[in-house]
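User: Second chain of the day. Same drill as before.
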Amino acid sequence: MSVDVQLRFGSEAITEYSKANQEPAWFLEKRLAGLKAAGELPLPALEKTKIDKWNTTGFDPFQPAAKIASAHELSELVKGQIDVDSVKNLVVQKNASAVFHAVTDELKAQGVIFTPLADALQNHGELVQKYMYQVVAPDEHKLSALHAAVVNGGVFLYIPKNVEVEVPLQVVYEVAGDHALLCPHVLIVAEANSKVTYVDTYVSGEGKNMVANSIVEVFVGAGASVQVASVRSLSADVHDYSFRRATVDRDGKMEWILGEMNDGNTVANNTTILKGTGSNASTKSISIGTGSQRQNLTSQVQHIGTHSESDMVSKAVMTGEAVSILNGITKIEKGAEKANGVQAENILMLSEKARGDANPILLIDEDDVKAGHAASVGRFSEESIYYLMSRGISRQDAERLIILGFLDPVVSEIPVEEVRNKLRQALERKLG
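Assistant: Same format as last time:
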């Protein structure tokens, strides 16, 4: 049953799925409210990008997948994203099922919760309810409402006060099959003075008309530090919509490292709300546009707390007839004294037919602050090409080295070696 039909008759199917997964009553209420809102709300308004003809509803939301007992039984596609022999804390989701979950006793003993969302709803329902949909509301637009209605997985990560998790926690999301949907909700809660690194990878198998609609909510407590790294390598048969948002308390730190390596049309919005005094946000993202791909990628920071700081760097490489819109928005609210926000958007053009728009935006309502932005859209420096060729390097290899050097300041920040290597492979693949 497609969501086009479910928007008229879908409450029965959603209720059946919710009860089969033993979800609490409040969560089913959220689902049904989201279903109703999806029929009434408009699509999100995006800068210079129309998505009304993109696939936003043509999917079957609850396609199951079989669970497995060992990481060695994972699909080759998933095993290619991880070190099967060394990874200890891992969740793998395929379509509407968490197919694998492993967590160490050491992590459990620290009071850390790292579990599929479905399990968290059953075993930690009150804690999930306290935070879920607090920074990304279901009624913001049609896509967030649809997400609330048919969310089919995700992860709950909770780090208690004063606990520092030393190893990155990994998740792999896979979508495969005609009209399949990947709709995870990631909820990360880091209590005061805690520390954690979360890394996820999105991949796709064979299938047509697939959709990914994901939401990430992060709560960074006072003095806590959260690092989120995400690499999305979905095929041209997947329309991908992601909305990530974090709220940061006093002296907390939020770091985003994002690799947008999709081949299909993509919308990504990444927002950090610096609520507390001395709070800090860092966002580093890279993307490559190929073929006739369309991308709309927004990084945003809202300064509310005094002495808050933010740094955003977005880099894109454009080939073929691809179109990419890079939006950087720094918003400093009235009262956010001594705030400091800087941003840079840089686009490297490799094709005359490609189009890249870099849009740095500063919105400042306070006098005693610092803010700056930079943007560039251009081609190779012929002097750099000539220099490398004079050392015996072919022009093709010289261009490749310049591109990789352009993107590597972000790639090198990925905290897991296997994911970092896979991102470099994705770069090589997309650049041919």
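Residues 395-411 form the longest helix (17 residues).

User: Great, on to the next one.
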